[in-house]
Model the fold of this input.
Amino acid sequence: MGDLADLFRDTFRQFDASAAVDVAIIALMFFWVLVLLRGTTAMSVMRGAFILLIAAFLLGRLLDLRTLNFLLRNSFTGLLIAVPIIFQPEIRRALERVGRTGARAFGAPLSNPGTLEAIAEAACDMAKRRIGALVVIERETGLQDYVDTGIPVDAVPSPELIEGIFYPNSPLHDGAVIVRGNRVVAASVTLPLSENSVPGELGTRHRAALGITERTDAISVVVSEETGGISVAADGRLHTRLDETRLRSLLERLIVSRNGRP
Done:
């Protein structure tokens, strides 16, 4: 008992301001990783891996399984290689978030209230006529890789333009429209599908709307041609069953207020 008390005293004696900062930084890193993984499939993978490691450690110690104990002691290098492979999408998203810091200082284009009003008006009109649509609003993360998959447009956003693009059987109605700043830059764009499930009445268009927001900080406005419902995807989450008032309010909160504009 005395040896244990001496050990604690020696440990606390070495705990200075530098050690406190060190512990705080590590704790913040773990907290940031957990926040990043919250609500994703990666959290389930991490939870399952943690349970397996704990179970293997306990079995190895209780039953004195030498081979298992040897593997656990020497698995650190393998884990360093496996983690970037398993959590590649989440690591990429984290690096993108770090890269967004200060993006406004480099002149990143930002959508103004007039552009958002045109998108909202077009979405409400198409919802009444049950015309399917998907409009992606670029924020700080560049979407050029996705723009290149579509047809260049370069036009001022207006309800008539957006509704014309998504009019049934028009040449550009398949895919998404991307809005950058105060311009529609591309139509018929191909987007990545979300790996997470969506409610049963929602289909591929909603999975695409959700998928782009899981990989970037973009905002997606989607209209269902089956139900005429309007949804907004942001930060990997889908806000459904929006009416005209809630749609405008949500877009203002997500984009106008965030940009610091009146």
Observations:
- The two ends are 66 Å apart (CA to CA).
